[in-house]
Specification:
mainly alpha, 2 domains, 7 helices
Length: about 140
Amino acid sequence: MPGVLSVLILLSLFAVLVTTLAMGGNPELFFEISSILFVIVGTFAAGLASLPFDVIGRIVTPVSRAIVDRRIDMLEFIDFLNELSIAFRKEGLFGLERVVNSRRVPYPGIKRAVQLAMEISDVKQIKEIFEIEHILRI
C-alpha cells in the first residue's frame, strides 16, 4: 500500500506541474532556490529535533569527517611506509616503534597499530580491537 501511495503522490505532483504549464504558467515558480533551501533545512531541523542530544553529539563526528577533506600526501605516505619497512627488516617491532615515535605520522591509525603490535602479538586480537574501535568510533 505505501508504494501505491507514493506513486499517487508523484502522479498528482506531475499533474499539477503539467496543468500549470498548459495554462501558460512559468515553470520557474516551482524551482525557486529559497523555497528549496527552506524545505531542505526545515526537514533537516525537524529530523534533528526528534533526536536526543546524545545521538546528535554522536552524529557530529562522522558528518564532519565526511565533509572535511583530509587529503593524505601519497608521496609522504609511501616514503613513511618505506621507512617503516626498512626499520622493521633491520630492527623488528622496536624499529617500527622508533620510527613512529621519531617523526610525524601521516596517518594516525598506523601509530595505533604499531603500539598494539608492541603490546599484543596475536594479529587476530589486533584486528578485533580495530573493528571494535571502528564500531564504537573511538
